[in-house]
Amino acid sequence: MLEVENLTVSIGDKTLLKDVSLHIAEGETRMLFGENGSGKTSLLMAIMGLGSYKVESGRIMFKGEDITRLPTNERAKRGIGIMFQRPPTIRGLKVKEMLELIKRDGRDPEELARDLNFEDFMDRDINLGFSGGEIKRAELLQLMAQDPDLVLLDEPESGVDLVNISLIGGAIRQLLEKDVHKNRRKSGLIITHSGYILDYVEADKGCVLVNNTIWCTGNPHEILQGIRDHGYEGCLECQK
Amino acid sequence: MSEIEKRALAAKEKPGKYGPDIKLEDFTLEAPEYGEKPLAQINEVDRDRLLNAGVDVTGEGRSGSFIQVDKSVIHAAPTQEGIEVQSTRKALEMYPWLEEYIWQVVQVDADKYTASAELNFQDGYFIRALPGVKSVFPVQACLYLKAASISQNVHNIVIAEEGSELHIITGCATDSPELTGLHIGVSEFYVKKNAKITFSMIHNWAEKIDVRPRSGIRIEEGGVFLNNYVCLHPVNSLQLYPSAFLEGPGATARFNSVLLARKGSHMDVGSRAVLSAPGARCEMIARAITMGGEVISRGLMVGEVEGVKGHLECRGMILKGGGRIYAIPELDGKVEGVDMSHEAAVGKIARDEVEYLMARGLSEDEAVATIVRGFMHVDIEGLPPILKEQIDNAIELSEQSLL
């Protein structure tokens, strides 16, 4: 589904990602761990083609096509969707209007909103005055309307209370077709700091970004436990 | 000579406090006379122009209609019992008491434009809701410029008697985009005890038209005045600064404006509210976009007694083509216990908002259009759906030209 090959990305004279390679298969869910400033969000932004990120070398392949130079909206049209950690407010654009603009054929925004207990927000401006949990639900609602094949989630559990995290976990499982056990098509790349999301969404693999590059890949639970026990320094030691 | 006339004569050279000065002698007061006619007899070309200004020439879904072309009132009739729609001249003949409503909330000697409205009076509309009567549909009023270099001078009086409700939509338009002209419109509004007026004005002027409306509003106890002003078409210069006097306890005023200034347009638009009774409330919300034009967005709230509340908000967006937006929010609290605030922001379209929408699959142009559309759509509390639809239509039409 997604193949990031030797990707080096910079902003100005600052290198944000160094020689990053990542392969996510169709139907695979990948957890991405890493300390603050390691480049996790930059990787998602680069895959989506956002910001002033400059690809210095390497390439991004999606469904066999080189999308490295494609504009963001073309990547979205090809099936990549992203959940922003801190999305902007768009005044005057109602949630329901946004859903109508972006929905894939056959998707019913009202029904999706009911699933996410978000009906009361449909006439609100996008993200205006939303709490942390409401922002996450608004983001997931948009993704459900888009129905992307590859879902990029930037810390879906941050700022969410224990009641809402279950709701959010359910929506992510739905997005990633976790109830489909054979020929699952949906893939995901999920950034997590705390690892709480692993209690709600099963992942096939985990990997760690340290010093702007992918350091190791393996069982997500084992990686998380290793980080809890030894910190990210442990990751560095482990690879020596 | 009456006292009013004397004051007008004394002020006939007095420049306006704001806005570029206009030489009145560059315009003519002469125009052909047009007779009154039923709405159905208005020709097709005029019909389309009126429609763009929000006037439905079928008269359907309206509680009354008023149309004035240059200095001739061609149609003035209500369609709902208890609602009066008349030419000001005829109303003054019919109701001697109306003299008490003339030049009460707008000063005749405020500047040369108010003076001209008195000295060169060319009618205008009189709209009134009788006590307790609620207009089912809005009353529509249109002031139309047709003759070359015309100076149109009208004086409008709107009265909502006690407990009544009046919705008015006014559209102003010109016969040709090439027309040169000046529109001077004095409007005096009286919102009696527990009455309500919603007044929505959509201006469709042209590049060589100068516009100087002069409005005053008196609001009594429990009265509500809701003013919506939309100007998305080119205009040479536009300067308006209506003043609301909230004189009764619990009086409420809201001003919403949506402006789009293209290259060559100068708009100096704002409003003033004097809150002089306990519990008076006022809100002013302005949205301004420039594509090369100049917008000065003013707002002044004066809190004269304890327990009044007001909020003023101005947001400006500078699109491709540059231009200028100058926001001047002013608060004047004169006693302890007033609660007034303001916020103002001027900037370009935020890149992160464009990218956010692109990440949802919209092209860059679609994203920009969506953001601009959202920016211009102000949520107006208490606006009847039919008026909201009219304002939305005006914005939609303008968006198409933006793209």
Describe this protein's structure.
- The complex is a heterodimer of chains A (240) and B (403).
- With 240 residues, chain A is of the alpha/beta class.
- Chain A contains seven helices and twelve strands.
- Chain A has helices at 40-48, 72-78, 95-102, 109-115, 132-146, 162-175, 220-238, and strands spanning 2-11, 14-24, 29-34, 54-62, 65-66, 80-83, 90-94, 125-126, 150-154, 187-191, 205-210, 213-218.
- Chain A has a six-stranded mixed β-sheet, sandwiched between helices.
- In chain A, helix 5 (132-146) packs parallel to helix 6.
- The model of chain A has no long low-confidence stretch (mean pLDDT 90).
- The model of chain B has no long low-confidence stretch (mean pLDDT 90).
- Chain B is built from seven helices and 20 strands.
- Chain B has two domains: 3-349, no CATH class; 350-403, no CATH class.
- The interface between A and B is medium-sized, with 23 and 23 residues.
